[in-house]
Structures are given as C-alpha cells and as structure tokens.
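At this stage, I put together one protein's amino acid sequence and its backbone structure tokens, which the following lines show:
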Amino acid sequence: MNIEFVLAVRDPQGNCTTGITRKDMTWNASYVANGVAHDGALGMPDADLKAYKNWDPNQYYNIWLVSEIDNGGPVAGYAFFAGSHGSAADGTVMLAAYMQSSSVLAHELGHAFNLYHTFEGDVNGTTCPPNGTCSTDGDQVCDIPPHIRPSSCNPAGTNSCDGGSSQSLHIFNYMDYSSCAVNMFTTGQRTRAQLAMTSQRGSYLAANGNMSLVPPGAPQLDFRASAAVLCGTGQTVTMEDLSLCLPNTYLSDPEFPGITFAWSITNGIVTLNSAVRRPTFTLTSPGIYSVTLTVTTTLGTYVRTENGVVVVASAPVAACTHLQQRVQLRPNGEQRGLQHHLQRYGPHEQRGLHGLHLHPQHRARGGRHLPAVRLHPCGRKRG
C-alpha cells in the first residue's frame, strides 16, 4: 500500500508522547457491563467513548482498543471512511483481543482509506454484486472480480459471479470475509487508498504542516538486542531502537527527515558500525560486546552506551544454548516493549480503553507519507 502508520511523538500540547494513552473505565457502568455500543446496541455509546478521549482528528488518526463491542457481539471492530476525516466520529474502534491479529486492524484501516469490502453489494451474500462499471459499482476497484462473500477458505474454488474466475483473486484480500490467512491488497485498492491519503486525509502529512512526528524535545535513548548470548562466532545479532520521543515504524528501514542513527558494537578487539535504524551485525570475534547508539536530530546529538549487551562464546561450546530472548536495556533493569495480548474470539479479560494516536504515512515512489496514530486502551480486569 505504501502507507505506514507511526505512533505520534508529539501530543496536542506539544509534549513528547508514546502515542498511547490508557484509561481505567470502571467509572462507566455501561462500559463495564457491555463494552461499546455499535449501531444502538447495549453499552457505552460510540459518541461518548470518543468524546471522552480523543486527540485532534485533523492531526491524528485515533484508534480505541476496547474490551467488548455490543455486549460481546460478533463485531471485532469498525471504522469510518475518509469522508469523516476531522469529525468527532472518525477513527477505529476494535477489540483489544484482536490487536495482534494484523488482519483486523488492516481491514479497518482499509475502510478508513475508502476501501469497501471486496463483495460490496452482495446483499448479505444473496446475490452477485453489480459490476456494470467497475470503478463505481461494487467495491469500486476494477482488479477484484465481483463475488459473493465466502464462508470458508477454498483457493481452488471458482467464482460464479463472473463466469468462473479463481477464488484466489479475492479470498486472501484484507477486505474479504474468508477464513483464509489474508495477506494482500490489490493495485487498485492501493491507488484508491493513496488517493484518500493525499486528498481527504491530507492534513496527516508533514508536507501539509502536520507536526505529529516532529520530536519536540530530547529523545530518551533505549535499545535492545535480539540475543544476549551467542554460542559461537559468525552468528548475528540485531539491534532495535526503542527510544522515546523519536518516531518509529518498527519496520526494518524506518527513515525520518532530520534524524540520523549511528551504531557501534565492540568487544575491544573488533568494532562494527552501522548507520541504519535497525542494524544486524555478524560477530566474528568472541568476547563481551558493548553497544553505543548515537542519534542526531534537529535539536542536537544524543549518545547512549551499554556494556555487556552480547556475549559471544568461542566456538564450539558443546553445552551452550543460544539465548535468543530479546533483551532491553534500561537503568532499572525493567523490560519494556509494545505488547498486545490479543486472541481472536478469546475471553475479554481487560475492561478498559487503550488509545492509539497514529500518524499515517503514505510511502510513494521517491518518498513516503507517515500519518500519526494515537492509541487509546481502556481497561478493567475481571475479578
């Protein structure tokens, strides 16, 4: 899609932020009993939820992670099309139990960028969608054939709506309802989403003055290694930047204007350097390695060094087992990271609201647009 989402680093008051706010919702009996009401069902009204915690929808895309929707009904999440941009209703509401499932959030964000269901117009699965003019009928995307919503995963099946095309043309699509492991958008969907990004949702873009991804202060440098102990030389370790007050997509190659990185890892004999955000080093010499991260922003240069990050044993060591647990380095030894424990259709253990404040970023040829997201989690543990 060439669109990336980044947790905001600047809040509406101009302060550094993680882009995540958490709220205890035990004060709202309706929410505790039924979650959020969608389409007039039981629960806290959608409008009340969003009025309670919402960052400027012209500058941030808000996502609310909740414990229940419609008193445990079948809805995993819902979102509004780009025509709602800037309104109090805009944003995505979804079950926290689905957050680790990329398909649910990708599906809802597809709607946020004007993508319909691939079977749009099938009248609840009873008839083939209209397709007289593919750009205005059905899902309004011409590289997805009209079809009735699937009830299973059958890639070998054929589509009765267009004379027998392969079901594989749509059942792996994020915007379909198949039970397959979905993993794709089409070129036509990408074009449609990018148009929404650059037009209706254009106020998310830095090129249009959005400051959500511009660090307002000095970063708090933090990083972790993919392994703490390697059982021999020639093994690799990846360093991941987890600094606060720096925008980060947590992808392999995040780049942001005016921000540079310099890594150094050494055992006192061999020193390796890298200027990428998430480098992988091959350690060919045994020893205890220290790591230095240097970050330069428009506000200055910041350095953090940690000793004993990785231990490389002299190979071979018969009784050695690679320690692959990801180690995060913090002064108090505490581990930190983005973790969302979500299970599809699992028990709703959290009664609260988690809020994400996202800045979507459209990655076009020669550049990308990153919008800021703000996440709102709400919760109360069941006793």
